[in-house]
TrEMBL record:
One of its GO terms (molecular function) is heme binding. InterPro entries: Cyt_P450, Cyt_P450_E_grp-I, Cyt_P450_sf. Its cofactor is heme. Belongs to the cytochrome P450 family. Pfam families: p450. This is Mitochondrial transcription termination factor family protein. Coiled coil: none annotated. It is found in: Membrane. It comes from Hibiscus syriacus (Rose of Sharon). One of its GO terms (cellular component) is membrane. Keywords: Heme, Iron, Membrane, Metal-binding, Monooxygenase, Oxidoreductase. It comes from the Eukaryota.
Length: 221
């Protein structure tokens, strides 16, 4: 792994574009927390123009007043606890219908393509990737099937192994100069395999967080 050889922050060039690869928890905290406003934006991507209304959705829009208003609308109007609760019965109905269709296909011996179901693109891709890696690990470790813990799979095979951001202005991190518009790749894959942080980092262990003080849904105590 390059991070073990060259350190937690590496500078690359993809063509003319400077890229900073961040591969340790400490370095990631500097980019995502200490200097979060500097690296809050997303870089423009050609494909996102076609799948997100010319980058006008919450995921791909550049950081600014428009993005902040979008986030506020999502937080208060779309994804608040009250709003989510009001459509709970609808979500359950859709989930039941999906399970029913999968059962029918399985009974008929027909292969099921989950990605062909009516799902949001982001949730479709991440769920499919998570499911694929879960099944791969269980096939390789059949003795652990009954002990599966969902978050062990996500830690070992993150659905987004590289989290991409773009710097909004020049910045100095770890003594290194980060130019404006540089891409920063937060290497979640490497962070999840950091031997300094995790015991047996390369081992698939569904019981990794059982009995620990780590809240896998939020933060450590």
């Amino acid at each position: 792994m390059l991070a073990r050889k060259y350190g937690p922050i590496m500078h690359l060039r993809l063509g003319l574009m400077p890229v900073i690869v961040v591969s340790s928890p400490e370095a990631a905290e500097l980019f995502l927390k200490t200097h979060d406003l500097v690296f809050a934006s997303r870089p423009p991507q050609e494909e996102s123009k076609y799948i997100s209304y010319n980058e006008h959705n919450l995921v791909f829009a550049p950081y600014g007043s428009y993005w902040r208003n979008m986030r506020k609308m999502h937080t208060l109007e779309l994804l608040s606890n009250h709003k989510i609760s009001t459509v709970r019965s609808m979500r359950k109905l859709e989930a039941d219908l999906l399970v029913h269709r999968i059962r029918e296909a399985a009974a008929a011996g027909v292969a099921v393509d989950i990605s062909s179901e009516d799902m949001v693109a982001a949730s479709m891709d991440t769920s499919a990737a998570a499911t694929d890696w879960t099944m791969t690990e269980l096939i390789r470790h059949p003795n652990l099937t009954k002990k599966l813990h969902r978050n062990s799979k996500i830690w070992r095979h993150p659905v987004a192994p590289l989290i991409v951001h773009a710097s909004r202005e020049d910045c100095t991190v770890y003594g290194f100069h980060m130019p404006k518009d540089a891409r920063s790749f937060i290497n979640a894959w490497a962070i999840g395999r950091d031997q300094r942080v995790w015991t047996d980092a390369d081992k698939f262990n569904p019981k990794r967080f059982v009995g620990s003080n780590i809240d896998v849904r939020q933060n450590s105590d």
